[in-house]
């Protein structure tokens, strides 16, 4: 798995403007690591490790990706927004 850089949200239900991101939680203190962001669209952007759809046995539509993050990151992000 490789850590992928954050890119703009893409998809047929998204406008062309990149979302404004607010860092919610990351488990590292430096460098690039899995991270959860809140957008100005009231959605979340998750930076993590890409998982190939074929390897997971799933059919993922164009414009979407599977992203793996540590369970602890999701738990901490939920606490941070509660």
Low-confidence residue ranges: none
Coarse structural class? alpha+beta
| Order of adjacent strands in the largest pleated sheet | 1-2-3
Compute the number of helices: 2
Distance, first to last CA: 30 Å
Instruction: Sketch the topology as an H/E string, one letter per element.
Output: EEEEHEH
Mean pLDDT over all positions: 87
Count of the separate structural domains:
1
Beta fraction:
25-35%
Shape: globular
Number-wise, the strands total 5
Radius of gyration: 13 Å
For the largest beta-sheet, the strand count, sense and barrel status come to: 3 strands, antiparallel
- The helical percent reads 10-25%
In short:
By secondary structure, the chain is of the alpha+beta class. It has one domain.
What can you see in these coordinates?
The structure is a single chain. The protein has two helices and five strands, in the order ββββαβα. It is α+β, with helices and mostly antiparallel strands. The strands form two sheets. The chain has a three-stranded antiparallel beta sheet. Strands 4-5 form a two-stranded antiparallel ribbon. It is globular. The chain has one domain (21-81). The mean pLDDT is 87.
């Amino acid at each position: 798995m490789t850590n992928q850089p954050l890119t703009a949200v893409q998809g047929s239900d998204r406008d062309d403007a990149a979302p404004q991101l607010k860092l919610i939680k990351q488990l590292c203190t430096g460098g690039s690591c899995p991270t959860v962001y809140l957008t100005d669209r009231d959605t979340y952007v998750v930076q993590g490790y890409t998982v190939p759809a074929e390897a997971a046995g799933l059919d993922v539509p164009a414009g979407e990706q599977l992203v793996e993050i540590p369970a602890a990151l999701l738990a901490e992000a939920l606490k941070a927004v509660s």
